[in-house]
Every structure is written in C-alpha cells, then in structure tokens.
Amino acid sequence: MNPKTLSLFCSLLFLAQLATAQQTERRYLSGTGNDHTVNWSFYCTAGQNSGKWTTIPVPSNWELQGFGKYNYGFAKDSSRGKEQGLYKHDFQVPAAWKGKRINLVFEGAMTDTDVKINGKSAGATHQGSYYAFSYDVSELLNYGAGNLLEATVSKHSLNSSVNEAERKGDFWIFGGIFRPVYLEVLPAEHIGHVAIDAKADGSFTAQLQLNTASANQVTAQLYTMAGQKVGTLVSAKLSGGSKSVTLTSQLTNPLRWTPETPTRYKVVFRLLQAGKPVHTLTKAFGFRTVEIKQRDGIYVNGTKVKLKGVNRHSFWPSSGRALSKGLSILDVNLMKDMNMNAVRMSHYPPDDHFLDVCDSLGLFVFDELAGWHGHYDTPTGTKLLRELITHDVNHPSVIVWINGNEGGHNTELDPLFAREDIQKRHVLHAWEDFGGFDTQHYREFNYGIGNYNHGHSMTLPTEFLHGLYDGGHGAGLEDYWESMWHDPLAAGGFLWDFSDEGVVRTDKRRPDGSEFIDTDGNRGADGIVGPYREKEGSYFTVKEVWSPIHVERREITQTFDGSFPVENRYHFTNVNQCSFSGKLVKVSGPYEAVRSTSVTFPVAAPSLKPLEKGTLQATLPANWRDYDFIYITATDPFKRELFTWSFPISLPKKLAATIVKSTGSGTLAASETDSLYTVKASGVQLSFSRKTGMLKQVSNGNGIIPLTNGPVLQEGVNNFGGFSKRIDGQTIIIESTFDRKSGYNTLQWTIYPSGWVKMQVRYFPDGYFTTLVGVNFSFPESQMNGVTWVGKGPYRVWKNRLKGGAFGLWAKAYNTTETGEFPFIYPEFKGYHANMYWCRFETKGQPFTVATEDEDVFFRLFTPAWKTDQWHNYEPIFPSGDISFMQGISSIGSKTQRNETTGPMGMKNIFYDYEKEPARAKVLTLYFDFSGK
Description:
13-stranded antiparallel beta sheet, 9 helices, TIM Barrel, 6 domains, Immunoglobulin-like, mainly beta, Jelly Rolls
C-alpha cells in the first residue's frame, strides 16, 4: 500500500471509530468570524443609531456597524456607563437533545455580559472582554421548539478593575459580541475538560475532568494528524461518580513540535460505560519541552532558543477585534515570511483559531492576561485567569504566560498560573525584571546600567523599537539583533507592533466619499504592515535581518569563485534541509524597451548544523562577468522563501560608461553675460551662474526642464567661486578655483558635444559629525510623475535601515504616501533611495536621466510631510531643495527613542578631518541627460 493510500485508509478508519460514540457537537448561533456572520436583533443605548431596534451581524464590534461611539483608550468617554448593546436571537433546539448537557458558549464579548434564555437568567454577569465563558442552559431550553437568547453587553464594566485592565490602554476600545457564540452539545455523561502535558521525550499526561455517575472506564489513544495510530491504548478504571482522572502514556521517538518543525499529534479519549463508548473527545497537541534556565536562557527540547517576535493586536480595520481564521492564517504567514518565530498576544488572549494556526504553522506564543497600566482585582483576575488557561492550555505554541503589561500586574495571581496549568509554564511581567527575565521596554541600544547589559537576568524586551510611522522596526534592528544574537543572556525580543491599528470610521468619510481610516493620530500607526496588511519598508528589513540563513557581507570581484560565507542561525534545522537557487541579472539602460534579462544557476546547500558556519557554493556560468547583479535565494524546508540576497557584479562606473555619451557629432557653443554662462550642445541649452556655478536653467527643443538651483551642498560650505570657462578638446568646461581658505570646495561642469553633462563636486563635509552629506537641486514636485532607476529598491531607506532591498531595475509612480497614514500606498515615493547607478525622472513635461560613476550614492525624492510625536524622537531630517544626490543620509528614530540611541547605525555620519587638502576631499560625480528622450 503506497503512503497516500495508507494515509487515506487510516483517516477513514479513524472516522469510523469516532462514529461509534457521541462526539461533542457545536451548533453556532452566530457566525464563525467576520467573514461569516448571522444577523441578530440589536438595540444600542447611546451614540450613533441608538434608541431603536434593528439588526447587527454577530460576531462584530458595534462601532464598525455604525452604532455607538468610537473610543481610543486614552480618550475621556462621556458615554461611559451609558453605552450598551441589547441583543436578541431566536433559535431552535431539536427534541433529541433533551437529556443532554447543553452549554451556551461566548468566545468573547465586550465587556460586561448578562445573558437570558427564554426570559430567565443563564447565570452571573460575565466581566472581562477577551475570555471564553459559558453557561449550562440545559434546564432553560425548550426542546423541539423555539428559544430566545437575550444578551445585554455593556461597553464599560461596572467593575472598575476591569476598566483599568482593559478599557484604559493604548489601543482602540470597542463594544459588542465580537467572537462566536455557539451551543456545545454533550451527552449527559461526558468528558468536560482535558489538559495535556506532552514532553519532548514522548511522555504524555492528560488530566480529564469528568461529568459521570455510571461510566466505569476512560481510554486514550494517540494518532498522527493523518489518523495513523501510534503508541498503545491507555485506560483507567473509574469508580462511581469520578470527577477527574489522569492518564499517562509514552511514545517512543516522537516528532517534536518547534516553530521550525510544527509537528502535531491528536489524542482520542473515550468515556466507556459497560464497555461501550458514551462520549468521544479529540484533542490536538504537540510533544515539546520548555525549560527556563536561570541566568542562561530559554530551552526548547533541550536547545537554547532566541525569540524573534512581534506584538500583535487582534485587529482588522473594517471589523475591529472581530476576526476570522482566514485572517489568522494571513497574519501568521506574514510573520513567518518575516522569519519570525514568536508572537506576543498584546494585551489579551487571542481567538482560538489564531493559536490553532500558530500550532500548525509554527510560532512560539506568549499568551497574556489582560492588564495595561491597571490590573484586575484578585477575585475577577482569578476567574479570568482560569478561563484563559482552560481555553488555551493545550496549544503547544503557548510557551509563556504574561501576567499583565507595564504595571498591570496583580502579583497575587502569579502562583495561580502554575496551579491551573498542567505544564507549569513560566510567568512574566511585561516591562519588569521578574522571574529571571528583564523585559524592560524600549531600552536604548547602549543602555548598560546594573540590571540590564551588565546584570544577571536574561534580557527579553517584550516591546522594543516602537515602530511609529516609518521609524523603528527595521530602523535599528540590525544593531539590536546582532547584539542580542551574540549575548548569551539575551533571549530575543518582541517588536512593537505587527499592524497599524487604523479603524474604519462609519461616522466619517473623506471629502471624495472614500473610506476614512483613523489611527488616532500617531497612537495607532505602529505597524510593520498597514491596517489591511500592506507591506512597509521595514517588513523586508526584518525579513533579511531575521533570516535563519545569515549570509555574510561579500564583494563580487573578478576573481569571485561562487562561494558565499553563511551562518546557520536556525535552532533545529540543518542548512541542507533548505534549498538554494541563483540568478544572474543584466539590466538595460534608461532607453531600452526590454529592461532586464536573466539566467539561473544552481547553488549547493552545505551540511551545517545550527550555529555552524560554512559556505554556499554557486556553480556559475562562464560568462557570469557579463551580468550586472547576482541573486541568491534561500527557501526553507516548507518551500517558504527566507530571503533573496543581491550583490553587484557591475559597479556604477561600468554602467555609466555604457549609457553616457561623451562624444557626438553635435556642435558646442558657449556665451556669457555678466551673470550667466550659456552653453548649447545637440539641442540642449544650459545656463550656469558665473558667481556660484549653479545650474539656473535647462531647455531643449521641446521646452524647459525645470531642474535648477544646484548643486547646493548640504552641511557643507557653498564657497564655489572664481569660475572660468574653457574648451578642452571637444568639451566645454566651467569650473571653480580652489582656494584653501575661501574656496576649498570645488565644482566642475563638463558639457559634451552629445548634449550629456558631467558635474563633479569635490567638497569637505562641514564638521566631523554630519547628518547629511551631498548636493541638492530644485524641482517642482507638481511636475513629477515617477522614476525608473537602477539601484537598491524598491523601498526607501534610512541610515539605520539599509537592509531588505535588492539591486536591480525599479520603477514607481509618484505618490504622497506618509507611512502609517491614508492612502497606505507602498512603496512610498518620497525619501532616500540607495545605491543609485542611474535614475530616469518621468515628469509631466520631458524626462531627464541622471547617472553616477560613484558607489554608494543615495538619491532623495522630495520631503515627506512628516508628523511627529510628543517627545520629538521620531522626526527624520531631510536636505533642503527637492531632489538630492547624497553620500551620507540621516537615520530615523522611533516613538520612544531618538535615532542616535538605536545603535551605531543611528548615529551621525563621521568623516576624517580633511584639513581642506584637495586630495582628501569627497568626490561626487553625476552625469545628466537633458535631451528629453
């Protein structure tokens, strides 16, 4: 029997075995998520569309359906205590259910929830938004007839501690039944709850809570997820009225669960009465062991791990915190694609399907009892903690509990975690030095006092590099991660945060009638991805920095032998389990219709165990030097791309030589007035200031190209002077005179008969530390349509965020996107772009092209309309002018740190004190084509 047939046979056999006993049945009264809802009757007591009965989809948050009032956690809410949602829903119950146990389950409702069935209370008011709760409604139902469910949901709680823990945080506050509601149908005698502890050595323990008076045996059998039986059947005898039982088993050589190998099993429990099954319950789990070794690290299955994580709110812009399994799959895949291995549930437990996806695709999870700067009182917290652990205990992805965030810790609850959790997972206080971990948020890179870099606790910032707008996340990450990777007491960390919390305002529209997405100013614009998961520049930086295949810096010279030094930064995977491919790319110039050509080549994967270093060996074709760039792509064992690295074969000088025409049949003519030099060449006319050397006007036969007023040195003295004009062979040269005191920066223009123009600036940055180094020109932004360029792209860069791009030919249209704000069009147009070879500027008039023969030149496109934060940490710095060509650019800060404190890459540019010696000046060479072609 072939493997596929065997797997199908095992699955059918498994299903047949389950059919012999009653399983737990789930009957949804609501929909299953924001992609599948059921309308219930609804009445909102305050705010939008209040005071009338209508309908609302369930699950949902009522603000996103046009009801009530939008509230961000910091906002003072005048409707507090007044805004409630009244729900009604009619449903049928089969007569055959009579005699069974029927639980009414709410997966989540915000915040206080009172429930009635057929006019009678189902039980006590539930207080707490993010926790599944249930009522036994067996005695309240009309069997074989209609039933009425009524729920009153208060947006704010009558319990002040619930409001302190949940309603006053730095996030949007919503109301409503936002997770599914269903009936759980069980036989009268049943298995009520199961808690599993499955260790890496194959030991299996399950604690079962039973509801039985006459059943006399319970069994457990392990299976693969495909239904193939593994291990031996285990059982336990029951005495009359047993309420709990523990089953143990041992599986030899189990496949272990890790984020790199998320192998799961399932176990089938059967409750037997006189040898006949009366209830069957199936649970998925994974074999893995998590150990916290003080003053050392986190060990999973005996291997020390470092966490590459992100904080994640349960959030979607058009539905608030009402989500779906499809969105959970989307989010986990995006995290895995960024090479993350961990996620923190900030600041409350997630949907059950999110943990299911973390289990199946592989992410470590830090699961969190809510609490921001306030916490639950002990009675309320005890109840909610039990609901949290009962709901999430069996997920192998959950490896740590967090008891509140940033001061929202009720320390009286700490011992209860171990008491309630069969696995005794470790407990953290986010933002405290507690339990052997210093989780301080947003520490500066060089923060070294006592209890951090020079302390004895393991460092694990549960929030770092706060990603306001385009700052943080990727900006500074390489510095932080390299420090973390090499520090034995660093256990990793969690970026803040995954996605922008931009919520659709049903009470507002944009002037053009389009949807208005509100991030509450700078409070919600913190994501690596946008509200609808639009990928920002930092997404790709994170992907490269956190790649488990670490490719070291490599210069491609003429003697290149195809080898790439690499380090295996996986924890459990050999490099030879991954696959690699290579590609050579040749790009065209700015005028050809066919823009690039490529050829592939094989790359051998070496056998490198975790933490080992070695070499990837490419088999290059003999003509590889004829190409411009080389790409190496790594793919993990599940065919997920880890990253594609790119390396230049051709340097800018080579490409410039192929496109710049220094000769031609055209004639040159030059004239001068009191203030201008004017030069004509092949239909191009240029005017330069005789005093400053600046380009004052450019035109050709089709009109003016409005690039003017340059070059202007940024953070350098514009002391070009003593200009003269001369003829040198077939060229005209306009140049300044060097003077050690008054004219030590020099400018030279060379106009070729072809019409091409060369500009060379020799200059000294104005000081030892400089933020910006380069030259500026003026160009009206209103005339720009887009750019096509060869360089590293397509996203803009900062000095402390240079990773993530690729060498190649890129194009993008003009846009006004400001990261984290509408219209969320990426990549952004404005900003710095790295490693320019040439750039063709597409304008509303005529195009023009600029090329360089220098390496590491940045081109800057205009100045974004930046907003800032209250601490002025984020504010980026841009040059004057409109278009710039730079040899040093600025870094960017985050919401919580200045750029200089994010690490060495965030510091200013440093240049040697040249003492104004011409031979030591920086040199920038640019070539301009103003022909309009």
